[in-house]
Amino acid sequence: MELTIFILRLAIYILTFPLYLLNFLGLWSWICKKWFPYFLVRFTVIYNEQMASKKRELFSNLQEFAGPSGKLSLLEVGCGTGANFKFYPPGCRVTCIDPNPNFEKFLIKSIAENRHLQFEHFVVAAGENMHQVADGSVDVVVCTLVLCSVKNQERILREVCRVLRPGGAFYFMEHVAAERSTWNYFWQQVLDPAWHLLFDGCNLTRESWKALERASFSKLKLQHIQAPLSWELVRPHIYGYAVK
């Protein structure tokens, strides 16, 4: 099986050689950072349509974690185009972090379409180093379709725990590796290197639930599902929340 995966990966490498060449020359990262937001604008519309019920279920109890003022302070890590904004409760104070500055103009559009929120600011930073956010300063951290592409899951989860106030919550929804005995997992392994290059560092075979289980949360509510998505490769999902 490993030999078959190697041969198929080699064939895909040959077909996508121009992308690897651009990457070798240091050009692909710049190109990807520019075009990826445009792809994500279209993808998130479809994703939100197909996952709307799951997102509503996931975020249904956000307000329970509001601080003494009654206003929810929320930090979204890897905010992208602001696809989650419409699921947040009215009056929620939102701060966004993303390492790609090219998302900002799309965020501005999403903010204009979601007047029920109080937008604080947009910070250009990686989730593994959110030094701009003070310790224990937010009620909730949200992270959707992000753990698949971060460089260090353990570090980002440590940062999440740092910025959350005691009793605050971390909400997540992530595509993950399929069960190892399935054909889906086989094709995830075959396509993972090219997928990682094409989709700005995204990984198909990450078992992100393991990092969440190892993190220092006092409570973890996590579900595995087969998401109702068109792309079978990313149907395996986890979602839920963890309490600091």
From TrEMBL:
Gene3D superfamilies named in the record: Vaccinia Virus protein VP39
Keyword Transmembrane helix found: yes
Q: Which residue ranges run through the membrane?
A: 6-32
Q: Does the keyword Cell membrane apply?
A: no
What are the protein's UniProt keywords?
Membrane, Transmembrane, Transmembrane helix
- CC per GO annotation: endoplasmic reticulum; lipid droplet
**Matching InterPro entries:** Methyltransf_11 (IPR013216), SAM-dependent_MTases_sf (IPR029063), Thiol_S-MT (IPR052356)
Q: Where is the Methyltransferase type domain?
A: 75-172
Looking up Pfam families in the UniProt record yields: Methyltransf_11 (PF08241)
Which GO terms of type biological process are on file? lncRNA processing; odontogenesis; osteoblast differentiation
Q: Which GO terms describe its molecular function?
A: mRNA m(6)A methyltransferase activity; thiol S-methyltransferase activity
PANTHER family associated with the record: METHYLTRANSFERASE LIKE 7A1-RELATED, METHYLTRANSFERASE LIKE 7B
Q: What is this protein called?
A: Thiol methyltransferase 1A
Native source species = Pan paniscus
Give the organism's phylogenetic lineage. Answer: Eukaryota, Metazoa, Chordata, Craniata, Vertebrata
Its gene name is TMT1A
